[in-house]
Amino acid sequence: MYKYFSMITDADGNSESYFSWASCNLCHSTLGGDRYDYIARDKNDDIVELSLCVDCVYDVEGIEVESCE
Question: Does this model's pTM top 0.85?
Fold first, then answer.
C-alpha cells in the first residue's frame, strides 16, 4: 500500500492531466481516461512514481463527490 501522496506539479504549482489507456497504479482500473502523476511512499518507505485515475485522485486528496441522485 502507498502513503504520503503528493501530486507532481510544474514550477508554478500547476498540474496537468493526460489521457491514457494504461491502468491506474492504485485501483488498477484499465478504463481509458485522465491520469495524474503522483509520488508516494511504498510499504518499504521507498519513493515511487504513480499514474492515478481521477477517481483515485479524489480519494487520495479527500475530495467528497456529490451524488447526482
Answer: no
pLDDT in tens, 29-60: 999 999 999 999 999 999 999 999 999 999 99
Residue that the C-alpha cell 502523476 belongs to: 37
Residue 59 backbone class (left: φ over 0; alpha: ψ -120 to 50; beta: rest): alpha
The three cell numbers of residue 47 are: 519513493
What is the CA angle 47-43-1, rounded to 5? 100
CB count in 10 Å sphere of residue 68: 4
Contact 17, 36 (CB under 8 A): yes
Domain locations in the chain as residue ranges: 3-61
**Closest Cα to residue 18, out of 39, 34, 30?**
34
